[in-house]
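Morning run. Coffee first, then this:
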Amino acid sequence: MDRIISSFLEHLIVEKGFSRNTSDAYRNDLNQFWEFLQNNYTQYSNGNGSEPSSGNPIWRTVDIGVLNKYIEDLRIRKGYRDTTTARKIASIKSFFGFLSENSIVSEDPTESLGSPRIGRTLPKFLPEEDVTRLLDTAYKSGTNEGQRDAVIMELLYATGLRVGELVSLNMQDVDVSESYIRCIGKGSKERIVHLYPKALEELRRYLKTARIALLGHRRTEPSLFVNHRGERLTRQWVWTILKTYAQRSGITQNITPHTLRHSFATHLLQNGASLRHVQELLGHSSISTTQVYTHLTDGYVQKEYAKSHPRA
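And here it is:
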């Protein structure tokens, strides 16, 4: 991999506080662009990121023409959708912004670079009765794995945690006496999420019985949620859990762990929570990210207007 790309990725993690998953996404996008340069332009084929004769970074020779050719390659030859193309362009823009700030390039060729206009997709959520059916199905299984799975889904719906946040939880992050969980979200930001009585009750039961049984001899394992070998659950495992119980409960909608996060936010707003409160619970840095949920709730904007305007 090009050494300057490596420096940029390190900058994202160390200085920007990006997660490893986000950094990996940037890595894939930029490596794809680098391979395009090497395969289509002879001046990039030496592969070390520098011009052999002068030692100057080859990135200085990338111009708007090269960038437009790359976008054409993404959309026409590779057939990427607008959403994927827009994400890859955003990665390149961030990268060249970094090069410009560090005087590696004198001019940023991406300043005039266009990108597909992407409409915001509304989050998909479950009706309250489907959430109840999903959880009831898991609780009725009567196994240690079923108890764990039910608590996982209960916590996703009770807290709005991202799946990565959930599987990263350790025992020390849980305070059952005060009914809250401490989690580390995007950008290494810490937040506290609270549990309603049912979620707390089931979590306590899981900790006393199912988790101990699943741990076996691995009693020092710090992970809150473990598999049948006593090891930390992965995000992929949680995805499989959701798919399995959705099928068993007769839910035809394609659901993921994020579906329960969306359901959490939507149901809170539908039942009168403020947008600012939901923003804090979700761990959104900007309220504009949370505002998308107002489009899912019947009359939310009208209700807020009627409640707040002095002559409404």
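Confidence is low (pLDDT under 50) at residues 47-56. Good start to the day.
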